[in-house]
Amino acid sequence: TNSLPTDAWPIACNNTNSPNEKSTFPCQNSYLTGFGGHIIVDGSQGTKPTGRFSGVEMFRVGQTNIIGRYPIHFHMLGDVTATNYTNHYVTDSSVHDSYFRCYAIHGTHGVLLSENTAYNAIGHCYFLEDGVEENNTISYNQAALLHALG
After folding, report:
1. N or C: which terminus of the chain carries fewer CB neighbours within 10 A?
2. Nearest-angstrom CA–CA distance, 61 and 74
3. Which residues of 24-60 are buried (b: 16+ CB within 10 A; e: fewer)?
4. Within 13 A of 109's CA, how many CA atoms are on the CB side?
5. In whole angstroms, what is the distance from residue 141 CA to residue 108 CA?
6. Nearest partner of 138 among 148, 123, 128, judged by Cα
7. What is the mean pLDDT of residues 118-125?
8. 73-83 pLDDT, tens per residue?
9. Taking Cα atoms as reference points, which of 54, 29, 149 lies closest to residue 100?
10. pLDDT tens digit sequence for 80-94
């Protein structure tokens, strides 16, 4: 059977600031509330976690407009290039119907994102959060049907 929610409409809700306009933010009391699961590989507390994801499907994940609550998020791991991509990667995976972005790399150098797909997501899908991240390989990925925040 189809697991999609039955309350798929309205896709846009009334804007609380301008009642005559529609908003692209999630609707209250529907599956479009914008609150889904997320995975953070977090090194900000001085820990050295490992993030290895292969063949993972993520559906209705991320949390709309909440910084850092992305479906898969490598967070402040520092330089992991010495591991030669063996401990920090996402390959052959998919994110679809995401509430906020798809794959994020923040303060981390040396992650491999390869052969992944992203479909029907709000915001960027292959995201370097600060723009200073180096030596990450983002290759052979696909993204389609992306929606702007707003």
Report:
1. N
2. 16
3. ebbbeebbbebbbebbbbbbeeeeeeebebeebebeb
4. 9
5. 19
6. 128
7. 92
8. 999 999 988 76
9. 149
10. 887 655 689 999 999
